[in-house]
Known about the structure:
mainly alpha, Multihaem_cyt_sf
Amino acid sequence: EFALVEEELSVTHLEAKVGCTQCHGMSAGHANDEDIGATPPDVMIGSDEINLFCRTCHETHDVKPDKVVTRWLERSKRKPTTQPVQQAVTCTDCHGEHKISSGS
C-alpha cells in the first residue's frame, strides 16, 4: 500500500513546510479521492519539465558533479551502459517521484 507520508520526496518537502499544493495546485478531487491515484492532480509535471520546475526553488545542487553520476548510477532504475544516454537525467532519477507501490 502506498503511503505518501513515508515517501522520501514528500517527507523532505513537508518538513520544509512545502505541501502538495505548491507543486500540484489545489487538486481537491485528487485529495478527496478514496481510490488513490484514480483522479490526477490539477498540475502534473512531465519528465521534460521537471528539472526546470525543481530549479524554481532549488537553484544549485550541493553535490560535486563527479559524485552526481555515481549517485545516479547507484539509485537509477536505468542500467549502466557504454551507449549514449537516450533520455535526459532528471532530478527525480535520484530524488524520487510519487509512485503507487506495493511496498516491495
